[in-house]
Amino acid sequence: MRIRATVAAVSGALALTALAVPAAQADDAPKTAGLSAFAGQAKSDAVDGDTKITKAVVNGGKNLTLGTTAKKTITAEVTATDPEGIYEIHAALWNGAGSDFENAKGFIGANSQTGTCTEVNSTTTKCKYTFVVDPALMYNNTAGTWKLWTVGIGADGDSVTKTAATTFKILRAGKLTADASPEPVRKGKTVTVKGKLSRANWDEIRYAGYSGQKVQLQFRKKTSNTYTTVKTVTTNSTGNLSATTTATVDGYFRYSFAGSSTTSAVTAAGDYLDVR
């Protein structure tokens, strides 16, 4: 009786989610469709018995950079153990403050509720889940840290729920340009390097300028493979950059942005300048 009640409670929440999530793909549907049903069943961390989540990894432990059009597929792996063995493991991705789904701003369900599972031994099971991350279903305010919710159910009905078994980041993709002029230029004359830092705007499905960000202007000689920082410049209200320096030798100018908590690092291609 115990195992049936536990599985019914967890699977019921996931079933509601599975029915509701596809609706989120409709143009007029909220991007977190199905979340409220899911949250109502599993709000916070819970332990019932001796089942344990021993390992959880999303996207191989790496952050995910997402642009404006291409969907990206990532995986999560969850390992659970129980002295009597594991019956099922479930997983989902969510974004928001706090430790429960009621605070969630974003939600991504797995393609399969139960994933693809392998018994490591008589007490331990590892499951792999696939998630499709679609820019069309993301909001700008969901960029940053995402959490892996997971529940492990033991063969004896014991269970464990973790709202943040691990975390990773989904970052807005950045773009950066650099253009040095005039070309060619006399040695000792002033060089102006213009550029623009932009990033994916998921609300509007386009790239937009990223203002107020510090970006490094870098240079490498034609005969070198190493860039050095010339100065640091801050983007204006539209993400544009402009810096001046003195022409010395032939070489390449570029801008480099270290990234932020919501946006990926990005470096412009080097722009060659002929100094005469």
What do you see in this structure?
The protein has 276 residues and is mainly beta. It folds into 2 domains: 2-170, Immunoglobulin-like (Sandwich); 174-273, SOR catalytic domain (Immunoglobulin-like, Sandwich). Helix content is 9%, strand content 47%. It has helices at 2-20, 35-41; strands at 46-48, 52-58, 64-66, 72-81, 86-96, 104-109, 116-119, 124-133, 144-154, 159-162, 167-172, 174-176, 179-181, 190-201, 206-209, 214-221, 228-234, 240-246, 251-257, 266-267, 271-273. The strands form 4 sheets. Strands 1, 3, 5, 6, 9, 10 and 11 form a 7-stranded mixed β-sheet that branches. Strands 12, 13, 14, 15 and 18 form a 5-stranded antiparallel β-sheet that branches. β16 (214-221) and β17 form a beta hairpin. The model is unreliable at 1-42 (pLDDT under 50).
How do the helices and strands line up, and which of them pair or pack?
Layout: H1 2-20, H2 35-41, E1 46-48, E2 52-58, E3 64-66, E4 72-81, E5 86-96, E6 104-109, E7 116-119, E8 124-133, E9 144-154, E10 159-162, E11 167-172, E12 174-176, E13 179-181, E14 190-201, E15 206-209, E16 214-221, E17 228-234, E18 240-246, E19 251-257, E20 266-267, E21 271-273
Parallel strand pairs: 3-11
Antiparallel strand pairs: 1-10, 2-4, 4-8, 5-6, 5-9, 7-8, 9-10, 9-11, 12-14, 13-14, 14-15, 14-18, 16-17, 16-19, 19-20, 19-21
Helix pairs in contact: 1-2
